C-alpha cells in the first residue's frame, strides 16, 4: 500500500513536470528545419522522394500517423515534440520500477531525464522515439516474459533490426544480439524457431522493402569528417569557402587528395587521417558528452543552499581521496560485488536491455561528429540501472551492519522524514525549472510563417519549385525543392533557374552569405529576369523572388 501511494504521488509529480515543460512549448522552442523536417516531409507526402530506406522511413510513418490528427505542419511539429518530450518520461519511471528500484530512485532519475537538454528543447526526436519504444519493449518483457528470457531476447534482437529503419546504426546491436542469441540457443539447448523467425522477417524486409544501409551513411561520413577536419585545421584555407553540409564531396576530395567512397574506403586508404582527425576526436567528444549526461544527475543538487561551497570542495583531489578511503572503510567490496552479480543473474533482463541499447548511440557518435547529444537518450536508462544495482546491493562492514540493525526503529523515522523532504525538494526543483524557462529565438518558425504567407494565394502548392534543401521550407509548403547541392557555385545561376524550372527563391541571411562570392547569383539578385517579382525578404537586406506565372 505504501509503494502504491508513493507511485501515485510520483506519477502526479511527473504529470506536473510534463505540464511545466510543455505549457509554453511554442515560445521556448523553435521549429528545426534540417533532418526532422525531412522525416516529416517524407511521411506527409507519402514518400514523394522515394522510400529511401536509409533515411528513417519508419519515423516518417510515425509523422504520417500523427498528421491524421494534425494536418498543419507547424502544429504537427510541436505535437510530435510534446508527445516525445512526455511519453518517454512516463515510460522511464515505469521501467525503473519494473527493474525493482524504489520509487524515489525511479522518480529522481526520471525527472533528471525529463528536464535534460537531450529531452527538451532538442528538436530532433527520432532517438527519443526509439528510447520510448525500447522502454516499452523492456516493460513488456519484464511483465509478461520474465520466465521466458530466451523469447524476450529474441524479441529484442528482432526489434533492433526494425529500429534500423528508424536509424541505420541499429544494425550493429542487431548483429551483436543475433550472435549472442545463436550462441545462447545452442549452449542452453533452447528452441531454434525464434532464430528462424527472425531470419525470415529480416530477409523479407531486406529484399521486400530494402536495406537500411546505403548511400546516406557514406554521405554522412563525408559531411561529418569534413566538419571535424575543418574545425581541427583552421589553417587549411582551401576549405574556408565551403560548407560541409553542401560541399562534402569537394571538401573530402581536397582533404584526402582523391575521391573516397565512404568510411571503409577512407580508412583503408588514409588510416592516419581518419583515425587522427575523426575517430579519436569523436571518442573524446563522446566521453565529454557522457560526462555531461552523468553530471546532469547532480545538476539539481546545485540549487540547494550552500551548494556552491560544497561544489568547491569536490574540485579538490583531496576530497575524492578521503571519500574513497571512507567508502573502502564502510563498504565490503567483495560482498558487494557478489551481491550485485547475484542480483544481475537473478533478473538479467534490465541489464541486457540497458547494455545493448547503448551500442547504437556509441557507434553513431564515433562514426559521426560525436557532438550530437541527441543520440544518447538510452544512457538515461543505462546509468540509473547500473548505478542503482550497485547502490541497492551495497554490503557494509560487519560493525556498521550491526550498528544499523540495532537502530532500525530510528532509521524508519529518519527514512519517513527524508521522504517528506525529498518530495518537497522535487516540488522546489520543478518550480525552479518553471521560473527559469526562457523564450527562444523562433526564427525558423517565423520564416515558415513568412513563406506560407508569401505563397498563400497559390492554391496548388505542388506547382511551387523552390530553390532550397528538401528538408526545409518544402516540408511546410508541400512544394518541390531543388537543393543547394545541385547548383555548382560560380556557374550560370540564370541558366540553372531556367533549366530546373525554379519559380520561388527565398534568400535568407545564411543563404546569401554562403553565395556572397558567387557573381552570377549576386547579379541575379540585383538584376532578376523580367519573369520574376522581387519582394522584401524574410531577413533585413534580403529578397525573395517569385515567378509571375506561379500566381496565375
How does this structure look, described?
- The protein has helices spanning 2-22, 25-28, 34-44, 57-67, 73-84, 87-99, 103-114, 126-144, 149-163, 171-187, 193-208, 215-232, 248-256, 263-269, 271-295, 307-314, 317-330, 333-346, 349-357, 359-367, 379-392, 398-405, 408-435, 443-454, 473-477, 493-499, 509-514, 519-526, and strands at 465-467, 480-482, 504-506, 532-536, 543-547.
- The protein is mostly helical.
- The strands form two sheets. The chain has a three-stranded antiparallel sheet, with no helix packed on it.
- Helix 6 (87-99) packs antiparallel against helix 7, helix 8 (126-144) packs antiparallel against helix 19 and helix 15 (271-295) packs across helix 20.
Short description:
Helix content is 64%, strand content 3%.
